[in-house]
Amino acid sequence: MATTPEEFFIKGLMEQPPPSPPVFFDLPRKPNCSSEGQRHVHNDMILPYISRVLLEDEEDDKLNNHPALLQVQQPFAQILSSPSFAAKVSNIEEASNSLEDRGRDESTFGMASSNGSDVVQAFLNGMEEANMLLPTGNKFRGRGQMNQMVQERSNQTGVRKRYNRDAHLEEVIRTSKAVMTIKEQEKSCANEILDEMMLHAYETCIRGMDKLRISMESELGKENRKNRNKMEKHIVVDIRRLLISCAQALASNNHTGACDLLKQIKQHASATGDATQRLAQCFTKGLEARLVGTGSKLWQLLMAEPPSVVEFLKAYRLFFAACCFNKVALNFSTMTIMQAMAGKIRLHIVDYGMHFGFQWVGLLHLLASREGGPPDVKITAIGPPKPKSCPAEWMEGIECRLRKFAHEFGFPSLKFHRIMKKWEDVCINDLNTEADEVLVVNDLFNFSTLMDDSGFFDDPCPRDTVLNNIKKMRPDVFIQSISNRSYGSSFLPRFRELLFYYMALFDILDATIPRESKSRLALEQVMLGRSAVNAIACEGLDLVDRPEKYKQWQARNQRIGLRQLPLKSSIIEVVKDKVKNDHHKDFFISEDGQWLLQGWMGRVLFAHSTWVAEDACS
């Protein structure tokens, strides 16, 4: 039976600690105070020792009673027994105690206030009067010596304080310079990655895919995977089944069962293992937070400590190279806009949730090289629903970078307009549209963060409000890209959907990126992991993402009054060829109900479509 904390504590009190080791190794070990285990000492060793001690005491008594010593001690005894000396000693003790109470360190002694000076003065007076009672040639310091000593101590304290203060200031300056240097290096690195991704996104992707392919096809990589596959064959635990069982236990408030299952999952989870082990490592954080009821607090901590921009960009670049999903989305958007701009000279892009603006540099480059020269371009960037996730300074940086590239491409000017407000509050009046411009509204996987429930029976939800406002903008084309999954209204269906969706993503990364990659670790456990923790551990307003499948979006859009446009065959052919030639064979592109679908091994993960207002001209 397990020992309770109380029993453990009492047991620790009753048991004697082991004997202390001797400081000098040639000495015997010191025994405990307990009688048990003490070494027996013979009487023939003890008796001589006692006799020697008694003999020494007798010799001390004879020495203390020596006539010469008593004659020398007599004057001092008279002084000590006089009433006047006893009074002075009392004054000295009181002054000394008062001084000790007012400051126990040298700095306080040296910086005493006027009251403290009175105490010092009384102490010196008492010392001087006592000095007069002693024989000449005594070694006690007089008033002048004591004042000099106090001054020297004060000066030494001041010098030491100034030295410590200056040393601390120098250390702060050195640390600040080091921090600034690191920040400047990170900023420079982030700018290089951003410029590379914006200006040479496709070329960067191809180079990244070639590096990954070489790494995966190397002899060392093949040998490592072969050895890992042999080890994994011996692992018969179905981690996915354990994860679902743990979620079922949580859904039924069986916390004991959930805790036991979580312990089993942790035994097989690993951030550097195979796809399933990495997924388990990612999901256990959310399950554990939900079990102990700290999901909201954990999410707040994760939001308070986001990854660095450089770390995020490196992980994003890796995902961009390994997977075709974002490239297909950007190509679909760019080619749709290019076709809408045929014969037009003014373009206005309304971009919901602009983060880095990767796609717009490529579009500007194509527009600048078209026949007739570059058109007038205006970009309205609508910041994220929560401004803290994308501060105004970040949007200003994107604007400066886009303007710089537009100037290099030969654009006479680039208009850039920022709107930092709730998406459901953005309407046609905020856009400053013009009659002859081509208006394009773009959403790249962002509308799933909008609430799909208003909380009131008759009020439209924010998601419907945004779509209705887009309809009123009457865009020439509304380009919508969504992640194809649905969480439902309760925890268990959401967990199942999240598990299968993330399992596909982790399988993709395991098939295309070496397991030793540090950026892959950041991509899985930080970027994807944060979203998984939120979806598993949080509820209500703390739940960030509320995705829907493409058929649900289709029904919602049509109910609002949007009409779906047919897919362009020329765009589909280009996208299919790029995926087939540049990416893993298990990626696929298909069509359904005027939606362009992307997926992995038969599972649809992302979808894209185009829309206009229902009463717009064909």
Structure write-up:
- Helix 7 crosses helix 16, helix 11 packs antiparallel against helix 12 and helix 15 runs antiparallel to helix 22.
- Strands 1, 2, 3, 4, 5, 6, 7, 8 and 9 form a nine-stranded mixed beta sheet that branches.
- By secondary structure, this protein is of the alpha/beta class.
- It has 22 helices and nine strands.
- The N terminus is likely disordered.
Please specify the SSE layout and strand pairing:
Elements (H helix, E strand, L loop, with lengths): L4 H10 L28 H22 L2 H15 L1 H20 L3 H5 L3 H20 L9 H57 L1 H17 L1 H15 L5 H13 L3 H14 L6 H18 L2 H10 L4 H14 L2 H16 L5 E7 L5 H11 L7 E7 L9 H18 L4 E6 L18 E7 L17 H12 L3 E7 L7 H22 L5 H20 L12 H11 L1 E3 L4 H14 L4 E6 L2 E6 L2 E11 L5
Parallel strand pairs: 1-2, 1-4, 2-3, 4-5
Antiparallel strand pairs: 5-9, 6-9, 7-8, 8-9
Helix pairs in contact: 4-6, 7-8, 7-14, 7-16, 8-14, 10-11, 10-12, 10-19, 11-12, 12-19, 12-20, 13-20, 14-20, 15-16, 15-22, 16-17, 19-20
Shape: extended
Distance linking N and C termini: 79 Å
- Largest beta-sheet details: 9 strands, mixed
By DSSP, the count of extended strands is: 9
InterPro entries: TF_GRAS
Region (SAW): 537-612
Region (Leucine repeat I (LRI)): 237-297
Organism: Urochloa decumbens
What would you say about this model in short?
The protein is α/β, with parallel strands linked by helices and 618 residues long. It has helices at residues 5-14, 43-64, 67-81, 83-102, 106-110, 114-133, 143-199, 201-217, 219-233, 239-251, 255-268, 275-292, 295-304, 309-322, 325-340, 358-368, 392-409, 462-473, 491-512, 518-537, 550-560, 569-582, and strands at 346-352, 376-382, 414-419, 438-444, 477-483, 562-564, 587-592, 595-600, 603-613.
